[in-house]
Structures are given as C-alpha cells and as structure tokens.
C-alpha cells in the first residue's frame, strides 16, 4: 500500500516552502492553482505530455490527480506532492456555484475521497503528500479545510492518514509539529520522529518515513 501524508497549515506558514530540498527528479508535483513556488528551483518544470518530460501537473480535477498518482511509480517516481489539496475541492465548488442542488457537494467530496484512496492503494514505496489549509470548528478544534459536510460527517479525512503534520512558525523559525497538542489532528507513528517539533523539510520527512518503514 502507498503512504499518504497530510501536511496542514495556514497560508504562508511554510507548507510549499517545505518542498525546497526535495529532489525534483524523484517526484511529481500537482499544482492545482498554477502558482509559482516560493523558492528558486530549475528542477520543477511543467509536464510536456508530447515529449513525456517535466514533473509539474497543472490540474485541479480529482480524476487527473488519481491518474498522476497511479502513473507515478511506472514513471520511476518516489513521491507525489499535491499543493494545495484544498483547491481541488474549492475550485470545483466555485465552478459549480450556480447549481442549486446539493448533489455537487456529494460529487466534490467523493472526488477528494477517491484521491486519498488512490494514494492508499498505490505501490508500497510511493509517498503522496497532501498539503492543505486548516480551519477551526465551532468547538475550537483545528481540522483540514473541506467543502460541505460530507467529508467531515461521513469520513473524517484526517482519519485516512497515519501521518499528519502541521506547520508552526515561532520567532521566525518554520517547523512541523509531529503530535497533537489536543486541539488538532496531528499524529505520527511511535518512534518515527524524535521530537514534538522538527524542521519543515519534506525531504527529511521523506527520508525518515522510508527508514521507518524500511522502504529504501
């Protein structure tokens, strides 16, 4: 089975920047918002389907994300980053905002579920990073931002992940938290990380996960 990893955080808290040390030749980036990376990198280039080159897919369609995840290992890639997963749901909702029925929420939620399931069912050594925004519930708990109530009430998306990290910025230092503070769904397997806070470096996280699960 594949390894889906959830990276939660507010905008500007270091989610995208955590990709800086990843090797672009080893992975794919799915960029739903077609936004520029917050660091200089010549290695991330838009996918040219005719030439079969490039590693960045500009799409926000759930079916396309499933396709990229399924294609990744056949293309010799070790990881896929989705930055930002929330826009896969949000953009679909905005395109269908004039629809009066609630069917759109069911379809949007179902598409998001399909993407996470594709990551779970991928090859064993493929890690899929879901970068996503957060929101606060009426009870004061932090959760992944979604669209509608289907994912929250029927699924609880965070429950589909064994590893969920959250960005934290303290005195200008950008980090990930690795365990819950009691108000968020952050979690990681026992012994995977040595401390409650680690540098927000997805390359280091990737190496730790591969070592922990003996994927190297």
Distance between the termini: 15 Å
Shape: globular
**Poorly predicted segments:** none
Rg over alpha carbons: 17 Å
Mean pLDDT: 92
| Strand fraction | 15-25%
- Helical fraction: 25-40%
Count the beta strands: 10
Order of helices and strands: EEEHEHHEEEHEEEH
Describe the protein's architecture and organization.
26% of the residues lie in helices and 21% in strands. The chain has 216 residues and is α/β, with parallel strands linked by helices. Helix 1 (62-72) packs parallel to helix 3 (103-120) and helix 2 runs antiparallel to helix 3 (103-120). Strand 6 and strand 7 form a beta hairpin. The protein contains 5 helices and 10 strands.
Write out key terms for the chains shown:
single chain; 10 strands; two-stranded antiparallel sheet; eight-stranded mixed beta sheet; 216 residues; alpha/beta
Question: Secondary structure elements and their pairing?
Answer:
Elements: E1 3-8, E2 27-30, E3 56-57, H1 62-72, E4 79-83, H2 86-95, H3 103-120, E5 127-132, E6 134-136, E7 142-144, H4 150-155, E8 163-170, E9 173-177, E10 197-199, H5 202-212
Parallel strand pairs: 1-5, 1-8, 2-3, 2-4, 4-5
Antiparallel strand pairs: 6-7, 8-9, 9-10
Could you provide a short overview of the structure?
The protein has 216 residues and is of the alpha/beta class. It contains five helices and ten strands, in the order E-E-E-H-E-H-H-E-E-E-H-E-E-E-H.
